[in-house]
Amino acid sequence: MGLTSNKSPVAGDLLISEPFLQDENFVRSVILLCEHNEKGSFGLVLNKLSIVRLGDLIQDLSSYDTSVYVGGPVEQNTLHFIYHGDQLITGSIPLAPDIWWSGNFTELVDKLKTSDLDVDKFRFFLGYSGWSEGQLQEEIDLKTWIVCPSELSQHIFNSDPDELWKIILKNMGGEYQLLANYPIDPRLN
């Protein structure tokens, strides 16, 4: 396909896997790019649910049945979070309009324990997706990833994770809209 993604990625952008990508970690993935600089890149897969619940991971939050996502194949013993709305946690980094990444974890747990935060504004992730210096740009040049501007990030929190890949592509319009309905395995079509 002749898809081009001329935009250089910046933190807050979404990376959409091309429909032919067979890497099981990234099939039909939507990744929120949290950090992108000369040293490398860091992102979180937004649409891969794990079987783990937040209460399974944090003893103080054992009553929370909140979903946890697989952020990527790197360091799957680490917990990360994003949230939307106003800045709620000290040290959070703004990524896109009303979307924040990370922050003071102790403060987060304390506020969740006392119900001072709406847990539905948060997404939690085990692991992350990482790229070394220049690696992400090489993959973009090879058309492994489509760079989507952060304006479409409003779909992160209000879309079914299983449909997020399609929803983002449809909202990008044009040739990307055609990809949204492309079968996972065209040989079975």
From TrEMBL:
<dbReference type="GO" id="GO:0005829">
    <property type="term" value="C:cytosol"/>
</dbReference>
<protein>
    <submittedName>
        <fullName>YqgE/AlgH family protein</fullName>
    </submittedName>
</protein>
<dbReference type="Pfam" id="PF02622">
    <property type="entry name" value="DUF179"/>
</dbReference>
<dbReference type="InterPro" id="IPR003774">
    <property type="entry name" value="AlgH-like"/>
</dbReference>
<comment type="similarity">
    <text>Belongs to the UPF0301 (AlgH) family.</text>
</comment>
